[in-house]
């Protein structure tokens, strides 16, 4: 862990303790399994828009590098690899990294998984993702700067996080954690960020925010992309080409 690390040891331990059933869609990470298809739809749309690609292309990330920060056991990293990217995944919890390595080997995917802090990682990547991570770090501004430093010139940063609203607190903490849909203690409302707060951190790190989209919930549609950012939202930002 470096001097500028945003890793919170208790957070890493909390998520590391969930490694055993991370890939079970009915296990402790069930909510992530529900979120993942929505996030992937957004990733695909933003990748196509950013690089001007045909939406029917099966491997839009061919020839590109991707870094998934807070990769967990690989729920997003594996689809990125299937979309053609050379993927590196990094997570603060060694238990999750070991689970990610085992799962990738079992499905025949080559992904460079590492345990550690993005602030200490060398190199740059065409695509950097950090989904449901910024609300778990020690210093959100420093974490965003570390993410931005890993984005290559002309590259794309994609993030997601809960909205800082009463609705998000009610559904994510009071209800989801209270009734066991999400493990208790997963979230701290004081660390939630409104879209303009996160956008300000991204801009201060030298990237241009190009899109913000909400993730909403309804009984008929479940979790879906929306203009409503109160529950959860995704943000896309680009780094200028040199």
Task: Report on the architecture of this protein.
By secondary structure, the chain is α/β, with parallel strands linked by helices. The protein has one domain: Rossmann fold. It is built from seven helices and eight strands. The protein has helices spanning 9-16, 30-51, 77-82, 94-106, 140-150, 166-177, 195-204; strands spanning 65-69, 86-91, 112-115, 125-131, 151-162, 208-218, 222-226, 232-238. It has an eight-stranded mixed beta sheet.
Question: What are the defining features of this structure?
Answer:
8-stranded mixed sheet, alpha/beta, 242 residues
Q: Can you tell me the number of structural domains?
A: 1
Structural class: alpha/beta
Low-confidence runs: none
Largest sheet: 8 strands, mixed
Give the C-alpha Rg: 17 Å
- Given this structure, which CATH class is correct? Alpha Beta
CATH homologous superfamily classification: Vaccinia Virus protein VP39
Rounded mean pLDDT score: 95
Number of helices: 7
**What order do the strands of the largest sheet run in, or round the barrel if closed?**
3-2-1-4-5-8-6-7
Order of helices and strands: HHEHEHEEHEHHEEE
CATH topology-level name: Rossmann fold
Strand tally, please? 8
Distance between the termini: 31 Å
What spatial form do the alpha-carbon principal axes imply? Answer: globular
Outline:
The protein has 242 residues and is of the alpha/beta class.
Describe the protein's topology.
Layout: H1 9-16, H2 30-51, E1 65-69, H3 77-82, E2 86-91, H4 94-106, E3 112-115, E4 125-131, H5 140-150, E5 151-162, H6 166-177, H7 195-204, E6 208-218, E7 222-226, E8 232-238
Parallel strand pairs: 1-2, 1-4, 2-3, 4-5
Antiparallel strand pairs: 5-8, 6-7, 6-8
